[in-house]
Design a protein that fits this description.
Strand content: 5-15%
Distance between the termini: 36 Å
CATH superfamily: Response regulator
CATH topology: Rossmann fold
Oligomer: single chain
Number of domains: 1
Helix content: 25-40%
CATH architecture: 3-Layer(aba) Sandwich
Radius of gyration: 16 Å
Strand order of the largest sheet: 2-1-3-4
Shape: globular
Order of helices and strands: EHEHHEHEH
Length: 209
Amino acid sequence: MEPDIYCDHYRDPAVMSPSASSPVSADVKPVSILFVCLGNICRSPMAEGVFRSLTNYSTPSQHPLIARIDSCGTGAYHTNSQPDPRTLSVLAEHGIKDYRHKARKLRASKDFNEFDYVIGMDGENMVDLEEADRREIASGEEPITGRLRLFGLFGSKNEDEEVGDPYYGGRDGFEVAYEQVVRCGKGLLEHIEERARTRGWKGETQKAA
């Protein structure tokens, strides 16, 4: 197993994809991404909706390096609920009108096995994910440390940037979150493409609007 460029014990998500069935090339496989927040009705579904749009997910022109996109929460507060109306309103205002989702809680044993990138929105999400990983390790599972990432890592401002929870505020907070998830989503896609290029991917960079 070859090390990731960020930390020598990290798994390289751009190279290894257990959920992908058909490789883009001999050394590059499509990757799967799971966005995670607390309740899965505000930030993580917004990130999922935006990233689906950026990658033309579930369309004939779907990005060849993307296998699957999903979102969940670390808590079960809103299980089976639709995204917050303000999330859907902001997405629709920016042209993402067909996104559908029902909130669900993280299923660590299943999700950690299926997703190449598990991306938290803020530091508390990361603490919860790391704790879930420790519980899985204690039960005999392999660690997924290298696949746990803070979304802000890809946002180009600073690696500690957090997408704050807008739930208890006004609509303005959702607009702020939207700007962040678009910027971080573009950065994540660029990261995936760049990592694939180091393994021989010859595809064209997909420029998002």
